[in-house]
Each structure stands twice: as structure tokens, then as C-alpha cells.
Amino acid sequence: MNPQSPSRAKALRTLLTSDQTEFLLEAHNGISARIAEEAGFKGIWGSGLTLSAQFGVRDNNEMSWTQIVDQLESMSDATSIPILLDGDTGYGDFNNFRRLIRKLEQRQIGGVCIEDKLFPKTNSFIQGDRQPLADVDEFCGKIQAGKDTQSDPDFCIVARVEALIAGWGMDEALHRADAYYRAGADAILIHSRKNNADEIIEFAQRWNRRCPLIIVPTKYYSTPTEVFRRAGISVVIWANHQLRASIAAMQDTAQQIFQSQSLVDSEGRIATVNEVFRLQGADELLEAEKRYTTSVSRPSAVLLGATRGDGLEALTEDRPKMMIPVGGQPLLRRMANKLKARGVVDLHVVAGYRADAIDVSGVNLIINDQYDDTGEFASLLSALDQVGDDCLILYADLLVRGYILDDLLDTQADVVLVVDSAPSKRSSSAADLAYCSRPDDRGMYRQTVELNHISATSAWEGRAPDGRWIGAMRVSGDGAQALQTAAHAMAQDPNADQFGMPDLINHMIDRGVTVQVLYINGHWLDINNIDDLQLAAEFAAGRRSTGQPEA
Ligand code: SPV
Ligand code: MG
Distance, CA 253 to ligand 1 centroid (Å)? Predict the structure, then answer.
């Protein structure tokens, strides 16, 4: 915990002494504690009943107190709100209780409640009237010992009066509450197992707000909460409801899976695996990894593959083009593996047509539902949040030699496009013809060439194209920012849905962004018809260097 932030004990004390009725929800492990906090509760009840039940044991001090403290530690770690531990009888005499207090404070637990029964206790709802009560003086000594031991003055010790449950009557309950309060208790928990709140309300009236009063209305649950407010109850504990809810859900799911021998019916009715990750704080770890484990930041990649593509209808009946296998592996998996091998592990795939058929692990799927009526630009827009400071943007069905990716990752330019200066003569879409500041003279290694324009026109401003964009680019630093700005501006255009990537690139150039060209000569392939598949298989096997049949 941040040493500047107020202690959890202080937060619990604030709840106890607030002038309105406050609420604690039961939790029994890290995840239920986090769920309680997310729901809005300002504090947690570390219930003895549910802590034992989640271990599958009875609420009879069958768990050791060190097990309880360990469990509380994970609840405390998973949350920022205070926990009031149901400390049963204090797990022994005054001396055991002192040690418990020290251990609880070390784990930032806000307070502990002890009840005036004898160790080992039984849950109050089981034979409550037959359980012996503690000697008043001895119990007061325990409270005093606890108060003398705590090092944080705000740590709360709550004394729980069992006299009503044990059938000893109202006067005895009030007498005990008074003695415990005088011994130093910060609040009194008055417990009842009646199914109406009459005796609790009477106790509250006679107690007359001498110190904060806590109740546990498990049995008299039908009482309107307004009644508790009017009676001046400080804290209401909903004592076991997360555990009971999860038991009902687990029984239902277990039965269903057992009977159907399938997961089909339960999926959709239960929390997603991603929700589990979220509750575990997986995002924080990813952020921390970025901060602590990468001295050189790693690029991410956005792969565009939402449309079905033309010319391959027979192969794309039940899958998108990027899932067509080449040499036994879908195109997308090939590309994902190549990228991962180069440290590009943050992969985002924009899918649309038959997205359900995408079976590639380790990629984040982003769905463009409008894939039928929109172009690549709309797909990129749906993934724009993922275009970070350094990002490769690639057609997801691209087949390319690894060295081209290496060269792309090596370039220093803010925006760079890979242009093939000797594209295949095979019939293919001419949409991505590149007009550059100079042709590829193949004489200079890593020449600095700028892109002037990219289009489907084979003669732009009377010039012949210098090559063809292969559908791979990288933006980094200011270039990534420039792409974001240009994309947001273009998104306002009424025709934005129809735009392709070349439109965005031209728009960036028009806005004054310098777009560099990385020239290559072959060594990549796009698949546009069935015949290309044979070439692709040979290319993938390393037997062909380009899509163009070799002379
Ligand atoms: C618990 O939650 O463990 C309690 C409250 O002690 S009760 O079960 O109502 O006794
Ligand atoms: Mg209990």
C-alpha cells in the first residue's frame, strides 16, 4: 500500500462511525473480494462460515487461524477496501488473540470481530441455543489485550454478543454489550437468528447509539433496509451471499456439463475466460511488461483480413482468405508465426467474413461486422486504438519472405511502405501501384526514396509506376501519430466506408507526411486464384522466389 494513502483500518473506522448506515459484503478469496469492491462496497466481511466453506470444511474452527490469515492476505492484496475479519472467538485466549492482531495488522486488515463463545465454536445458526457463552470478564480481558496490542490506533475490534442467539435474553445481551464497550470494543455486533428483526430493533433502541452497532440480517432478510436505517444501525453485513450465489451457479453448471457431455450449453451463461483474466488484473501485467521488460519497445501489428476476397470463392466458402492453407498452414498463422519470431507479439487481426473460422492462437481478433459494405480503411479504423507508437500494418493474407519483415523492422523512417519494383506479371489487382520519388536503381542499398502517390491508375500524372505496394507498411513515432490524425480526418468523409488503404496513404502524403519506400524485388506473393495456390505452396516451401513463373 502507498504509505501516503490512509490505512484500511482508518477506512473501516470511517464506515463504523459514519452517520449513515453502511454495508459490508462477504468475500472468501481474492476474486470474490475484488468482485465486492467492483460492485461498489466500501468494505468486506471476512466471513468465518464462507472462508471455511470455500475450503470445504465446517465452520467449527477446522481451518487453522494461519490458513485464515493467508487467505485474508490474498483478499487484501486483491482490493483496496478494508476487511473486517470474522475472528470467531479469537482462536484461543487473550494471548492467541494478541498474536492474531499483530498478524492482521501486518496484512492491512482493517479490523476483527470476536464473539463471546468458546473455542472451538460452531456457527450460530447450528444449535445456537446450546452453545456455551464465554465468561464476561475473560472476554473483556481479551478485548483489552487486543486494544493494547494494536499498533494502528484505527484498527477496529468489534465485540459480538451471542446472548440473544443462546437464549439468555435481552437484559443479558445489553449487559454484555455494555461490558465489552467499556473494555474498549469499537463497535458491538448484535446477532439474532429470528426471522424477524424485532429483538434487534429493541436492542438498538435500548442501546441508544452508545457506540456503533452492527447487524447480520441473514435470517431476518425480509426486513426493509429502511428499518435498519431508522434504528440507527451503523453497519449491515450481508454475510454469505457471494458464496451462496457461486454454489448455486457451480451446481447448475456442473450438472449441465455432466449431463450434456458438452460445453455448448454452458458457454454464454458463465463468465468468459477474458472476464477471469480481467478480474485477475491481466491488463496491469501487460502494461508493466511494456514498462519493465522492453528496453527497446516492440512494434505491434495490425493485420487486415475482413473481406472474403474475389476469385477464390470455392476455397472461401467456409473461411476467410487468410485461413486458406498453404503448405499445410493457414496464411494468417504463417504470418503470425513470422512476426512472433521477430518479437512482434502484439498482433491484432481485423476479421469479418467467416471470422468464426479463424483458428490462430495468440492473436487479438477485432471484428468489422460491416465487412461486406466497407473497405480496408473501415477495417483499419476499427483497429485504430491498437496502432500504437510503432506498428506494422499488413494484409493478413500476404505471403512474404522473412527478410522483408526484417528489413521493414530495421528501417528508421516514420512511415515506410514496402514496394516491389519488379512485381509479378500475373494478373492481379492493380490497385496498389506506387509512384515514387525515383525508380529502384538496384544499385544502392537502402536508398532513400519517397512515395508520391499510390493508385490503381497505371499512368498517374503521365508517369509509369515504379512498383507495387505489397500490403505491408510500418508507422512509428510521429508517423504513427500522423496516421491517427489522417485517419480521424478521413473518417469524417461521407465515403469513408469505401476507402482503401491507398486512400489513407495518399491522404497522409497530401497532408505533408513523408512516406518512405522500401524497395524489394519479388519474394512475396498474393493469392488471387486457384492457380496461385500451387505457386504459393512452392514459394512457401522455398522452391520459388517470386510469384512470377521463373523463366
Ligand atoms: C459468518 O459469516 O461466519 C458469521 C455470521 O459469523 S453467521 O454465519 O451469521 O453467524
Ligand atoms: Mg462466523
Answer: 27
Q: For ligand 1, atom 2, name the residue with the nearest CA.
A: 47
Atom of ligand 1 nearest to the CA of 115: 6
CATH class of the domain comprising 8-242: alpha beta
Candidates 3.40.50.720, 3.90.550.10, 3.40.605.10, 2.60.120.280; CATH matching 297-540: 3.90.550.10
Q: CA-CA distance, 359 to 333, in Å (whole number)?
A: 8
Ligand 1 neighbourhood includes 49 CB (under 6 angstroms): yes
The full set of domain ranges for the chain reads 8-242, 249-291, 297-540
Cα 32–34–39 angle (5° rounding)? 95
Q: Is the pTM of this model over 0.90?
A: no
End-to-end Cα spacing for the chain:
70
Closest ligand 1 atom to 124 CA = 10
**Residues identified as active-site:** 59
User: What is the tens place of the pLDDT at every residue in 502-536?
Assistant: 999 999 999 999 999 999 988 998 887 777 888 88
List pLDDT tens digits, range 47-88: 999 999 999 999 999 999 999 999 999 999 999 999 999 999
Total count of residues recorded for the chain? 551
